[in-house]
TrEMBL record:
GO terms for cellular component: endoplasmic reticulum membrane. It is an enzyme of class 2 (transferase). It is found in: Endoplasmic reticulum membrane. It is a single-pass membrane protein. Pathway: Protein modification; protein glycosylation. This is Alpha-1,3/1,6-mannosyltransferase ALG2. It comes from Parnassius mnemosyne (clouded apollo). It catalyses: a beta-D-Man-(1->4)-beta-D-GlcNAc-(1->4)-alpha-D-GlcNAc-diphospho-di-trans,poly-cis-dolichol + GDP-alpha-D-mannose = an alpha-D-Man-(1->3)-beta-D-Man-(1->4)-beta-D-GlcNAc-(1->4)-alpha-D-GlcNAc-diphospho-di-trans,poly-cis-dolichol + GDP + H(+); an alpha-D-Man-(1->3)-beta-D-Man-(1->4)-beta-D-GlcNAc-(1->4)-alpha-D-GlcNAc-diphospho-di-trans,poly-cis-dolichol + GDP-alpha-D-mannose = an alpha-D-Man-(1->3)-[alpha-D-Man-(1->6)]-beta-D-Man-(1->4)-beta-D-GlcNAc-(1->4)-alpha-D-GlcNAc-diphospho-di-trans,poly-cis-dolichol + GDP + H(+). Its main location: endoplasmic reticulum. Residues 13-178 form the Glycosyltransferase subfamily 4-like N-terminal domain. Its EC number is 2.4.1.132, 2.4.1.257. Mannosylates Man(2)GlcNAc(2)-dolichol diphosphate and Man(1)GlcNAc(2)-dolichol diphosphate to form Man(3)GlcNAc(2)-dolichol diphosphate.
Length: 421
């Protein structure tokens, strides 16, 4: 058994949070001891594993502001993570003596973690280079971002091992960080199927006021503009033009997503989407849900007919895997990580990011119910073959064992050097 510490900026509800929790579950399954350290953890807005005692969670640096008058969010996030890293280096690592420190999202913490003495290894999981996630800005924005972007590459190179979530992200990583010569390892995320297997789906009426006689399309994504959720609404409106009146009467879209009440963009975008639904005259065809509980998400996946996944150039995408596990076809944009998880016309449809293409794919499923079952079965088989939790666990365990071997070799070399002295 070894000890593994996770350092993550905000243990809320999102794909990055699900990934680190699943990694922790994988390590725990192998008998290792795991603990989380984070800048922020709200028990009312998090995954169950961080509030039910599955893992100990320690909050460090939440007193540091997230922004300054609504600006400098990235800089504040960097400062918060550096503070947490220094705390670990001074007070935690010398006492806990971890073998691995697993961090993600913000690489600036890595050199500060390495201030601590001890034969531990730092593994950094790069979901996507942060420098590529920021929105375009003017001259002042470029000046502000320049040192942050430079620091990101410099500190990412300090990690002992870098993992990425897809071949797509590996290519983006190498293009973005051309000074880093080491090639990252690809570690496909998975999902905690044990939770799905032991959770009994609730009747749909207990989750949303929608009848089972409806052909339900489901969208699960955080309420963020980069997720392109408007595409789902516009595709639904376009679908109305394609279907007969009787088929249209059966259609319903459920939009469920992570909603943090202290996140301004979440609040703004939720209002934008509800306003757009009203503008498109499809309000009665859409049900919006904020931060569904894990048990509610299971029920939505179980009762829906298909998943509509709208982000472009998504780094990987956990939700399509969850839908595939529940034998649901996935309609997604033909770019990024979904091109590695979804096989077009076999497990779902890869579409151009426009309403016409999505609506056309949605109509195929409505007109051919047998196609829903066929694609769903193929999706489940692909999940079991390539993205199962067992495969994810073994991959992480292999990485851990290699890092342990490096530590052992380093200790042996140090011992020999001491003997010579």
């Amino acid at each position: 058994m070894v000890k593994i510490l996770f350092l993550h900026p905000d243990l809320g509800i999102g794909g990055a949070e699900r990934l680190v929790l699943d990694a922790a579950l994988a390590f725990k399954r192998k008998g290792h001891e795991v603990a989380f350290y984070t800048n922020h953890h709200d028990p009312t807005h998090c995954f169950a594993e961080t509030r039910n005692g599955t893992f100990p969670v320690t909050v460090v640096g939440d007193w540091i502001p997230r922004s300054i008058f609504g600006r400098f969010k990235a800089a504040c996030a960097y400062v918060r993570m550096v503070y947490a890293a220094v705390y670990l280096a001074w007070y935690v690592i010398p006492v806990e003596e971890p073998t691995i420190i697993f961090c993600d999202l913000i690489s600036l913490c890595i050199p500060f973690l390495k201030m601590a003495r001890g034969p531990f290894r730092v593994v950094f999981y790069c979901h996507h280079p942060d420098k590529l996630l920021t929105s375009e800005g003017g001259f002042l924005k470029k000046i502000y971002r320049a040192p942050l972007n430079w620091l990101e590459e410099l500190t990412t190179a300090c990690a002992d091992k870098v993992l990425v979530n897809s071949k797509y992200t590996a290519r983006v990583y190498q293009d973005a960080f051309q000074k880093i010569k080491d090639i990252p390892d690809i570690c496909y995320p998975s999902i905690n199927t044990e939770f799905f297997n032991t959770t009994v789906p609730k009747p749909l009426k207990e989750v949303v006021p929608v009848g089972l006689d409806k052909f339900i399309f489901l969208s699960i994504n955080r309420y963020e503009r980069k997720k392109n959720l408007q595409l789902a609404l516009r595709a639904l409106e376009h679908l109305k033009q394609i279907l007969s009146e009787s088929d249209w009467n059966r259609v319903h879209l459920i939009m469920a997503g992570g909603f943090d009440p202290i996140n301004l963009e979440n609040m703004e975008h939720y209002i934008e989407l509800t306003d757009l639904a009203a503008e498109l005259d499809i309000e009665d065809k859409v049900t919006f849900m904020k931060s569904p509980k894990d048990t509610e998400k299971v029920s939505l996946l179980y009762h829906c007919k298909a998943l509509v996944y709208t982000p472009s150039n998504e780094h990987f995408g956990i939700v399509p895997l969850e839908a595939m596990y529940y034998k649901k076809p996935v309609i997604a944009v033909n770019s990024g990580g979904p091109t590695e998880t979804i096989v077009n016309d076999v497990t779902g449809f890869l579409c151009e990011p426009n309403s016409e293409s999505f609506a056309r794919a949605m109509s195929k499923l409505i007109w051919a119910p047998e196609l829903v079952d066929k694609l769903g079965e193929a999706g489940r088989k692909r999940f079991e073959t390539k993205f199962s939790f067992d495969a994810f666990t073994e991959q992480l365990d292999g990485i851990l064992n290699r890092e342990r071997q490096i530590i052992s070799e380093a200790r042996a070399i140090e011992y020999e050097q001491r003997k010579k002295k």
